[in-house]
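Q: Please design a sequence for this.
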C-alpha cells in the first residue's frame, strides 16, 4: 500500500493547458496536475530552482467556460525529463487572488476529475 502525504488532492489535467510566464508573455510548459496549493509543470523552457515566478493559465469548466488564472509560484524542485529540453517541475502557489482560488477549488473538485 502506498501512503499519500500530500496536503491537497492533485487533479490530473487531461487536456493540454499551457502555462505562460506573465512577465515575459512566453509559454514555459504545460500542466501535468493541479491542486489548490501547487502544480506539476512539464517545463519546455529553462527554469531556475528555488526561484519565484508569475504564471498565467486558463482552465475550462464542465460547461466549456474558460477562466484565466494568474498565480505567484515558487519552484520547489526540478528533474530533467528524458525528452531533450524538458523538465518535470514542482511548484507551490504563493499568491492566488481569493476569487481565483475559489474558481480553482471548484475546478479541482468538479465531477469527472481524476486524481493522483
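A: Design:
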Amino acid at each position: 500500500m502506498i501512503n499519500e502525504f500530500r496536503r491537497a488532492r492533485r487533479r490530473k489535467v487531461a487536456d493540454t493547458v499551457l502555462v505562460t510566464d506573465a512577465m515575459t508573455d512566453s509559454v514555459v510548459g504545460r500542466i501535468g496536475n493541479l491542486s489548490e496549493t501547487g502544480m506539476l509543470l512539464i517545463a519546455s523552457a529553462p527554469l531556475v530552482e528555488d526561484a519565484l515566478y508569475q504564471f498565467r493559465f486558463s482552465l475550462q469548466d464542465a460547461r466549456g467556460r474558460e477562466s484565466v488564472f494568474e498565480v505567484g509560484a515558487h519552484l520547489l524542485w526540478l528533474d530533467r525529463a528524458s525528452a531533450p529540453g524538458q523538465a518535470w517541475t514542482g511548484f507551490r502557489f504563493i499568491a492566488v487572488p481569493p476569487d481565483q482560488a475559489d474558481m480553482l477549488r471548484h475546478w479541482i473538485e468538479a465531477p469527472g476529475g481524476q486524481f493522483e
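Q: Thanks. Anything notable?
A: The chain has one helix and seven strands. Confidence is low (pLDDT under 50) at residues 1-6.
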